[in-house]
Amino acid sequence: MTLHEMKTRPPSKGTGNYDAYLQPGRVHSSVYTSPDIFEAELEKIFYRTCVFVGHESEIPAAGDFRVRKIGRKSLIFIRNAAGETNVLFNRCRHRGAALCSTDEGNATRIRCWYHGWVYDAAGQLLDASLADAYGDDFDKSEFSLSRPAQVDSYRGFVFANLSPGGPSLREHLGLAAEMMDLLVDASPVGSITLAQGRQRTVYGGNWKFAGMDGYHGPFLHASVFEIFKTDPKGVGATHEAKQFTKEAATYTRAFGNGHSMLDQRDYRLAHPERHLKVLESTPGGSEYIARMREAYGERADLLITSAGDPHMGLFPNMQLLVSHVRIVVPLAVDRTEIISIPVLLDGVSEEMNDTRFRAFEGFYGPCGYGAPDDAEIFERMQVGLQNDDEPWVDISRGMHRERVDTDGSLVGYISDEIPQRSQMAAWVKAMNHA
Amino acid sequence: MLDTMMEPALAEALAELGQLKRHRQIERFLFAEAALMDGHEFDKWLSLWTEDGVYWAPSSASEADSVHNVSMIYDKRKDLEARISRLHGRFAFAQLPKSHLTRVVSNVEIADGDGEWVTIRSNFVLGELRRDLAHVPFGRAEHWLVPEGGAFRIKRKKASLLNSDTAMPNMVYLL
Predict the structure, then answer these.
(1) Residues A33, A383: Cα–Cα separation, whole Å
(2) Which of A88, A128, A306, A351 could be disulfide-bonded to A145 (CB atoms 3.0-4.6 Å)?
(3) Facing B74 at nearest CB: one of A226, A361, A377
(4) Is A35 helix (H, G, I), strand (E, B) or coil?
(5) pTM value?
(6) Are the C-beta atoms of residues A295 and A189 closer than 8 Å to each other?
(7) What is the mean pLDDT of each run of 10 residues along chain A (434 residues)?
(8) B73 vs A contacts (CB less than 8 Å)
(9) What is the rounded CA–CA span in Å between residue A6 and residue A22?
(10) What ipTM describes this predicted complex?
């Protein structure tokens, strides 16, 4: 394909080979700007990979539900009367009306108001109204709300794959599962709660921009580092400009399947003073340190200093960073929604969770002092990438110095573009899947 | 005879005039605050606040409180100062260039004027233009004002956006 063809006639939905879009250290910008490629991504990636739906703690009581999108499809993430979590397509099995018209709520009975069909919270059809018209052999069990081909969970994080086959969730997560533990095991009782609301933001740019990047911090977020200098509580205690210099023991790490992490573990273990000081001056903080040592022994120092921040992106649609879980929702090639859900640690003092919570509020959301600058630059990216007479986007930073670590992960310096190369490698593999 | 008939009517009229004056005074305060926010006059706007002020913009339309539900803004004085300082600086890229803002404040109602504070409710429509994109959020504001030497200071402000449940673009200007 010529460069012109790559932009104007990309492989159509469902067929074709995408190798030409990724060269060593560079990616063709039409992956971010082509509506045809976006449509293909929905089929090849969002309807075909392990996609994050929600965390079990979001729906604690029977009937609690969240409506989440996978591509253009909407799914109901709901807890049934028996206490199990379910993922159900938001569509009446009769004539197809969407059942839930709010994005969260509680319903132990889900009624379609078109013709009165009613389901329970496990999606079983309880009653098709005036059912005698369907004859004696009408079998309600054939009209249960349909479900994704595969649903699985890890530590309460529920994922769905709309297609059969492919890797299991554990295979898909690989080494990334251990980094998810860094968040959940920041709680001395090994559990987290996502029940404090969420921020929903939208930016005019491609979904693939939202990823791990250890290069941009001191520049794009210069205003934030200014604030942190004067107030080191909360996020500031674990985020300093020093961590993003080449001397720091901080890395980027790729785990395969597109997952990557800004790995600050060694740095935080080597410089725990500031964070420990904040903990010790927070009511419940000293008790937390003691309980963590008791619960986790040798792992405690790592867990305490990591402060529940794996700073990781899971391909395609999920991130675990700082104090929240983030879901990336592709709306159009140039429009993306981000759902940011703050995470509270179970078994810690209210004051400790309050500090995490307030730090999240400060940085993230549409009025925060950090995240809006990311959204702004993503919108500038979408404008700049239209100017594609020179179509190649450089993601070669640190290519010469990446190496395979003993655990099999690919590791580089904190500011190297391992996350971008790893995302695009997984992208090409998924897009080429027949 | 005429005097005794006129007195109650006059008293009533004077009382109503007093109330209208007060209402107008409060409206003028809200309009002046709006003008400062529209003009990005951060320091003058900050000077309207008491030292123990709380500025709150919930991120959900449901009446969840600020403790049990994440907010878009929940600033105490220190956070307000950090917010203003960042907006003054050279690195708040989400507001470089700054949005053009014009808001309409209306439906002003004194909810409670009996105590030490005056509680005001109002509606606003905020026209924002930035880089050829217009965004027009609607909202309701609640102000808790402390009278101070013929003027007011803001002790608490809650800005509830109509669309706070939906996916929001950047709103880094003052609400």
Answers:
(1) 9
(2) A88
(3) A361
(4) helix
(5) 0.94
(6) yes
(7) 75 73 95 95 96 98 97 97 98 97 94 96 95 91 97 98 96 97 97 93 97 92 81 52 76 96 94 91 96 97 95 97 94 98 96 90 92 96 95 96 96 96 96 86
(8) 361, 367
(9) 11
(10) 0.91
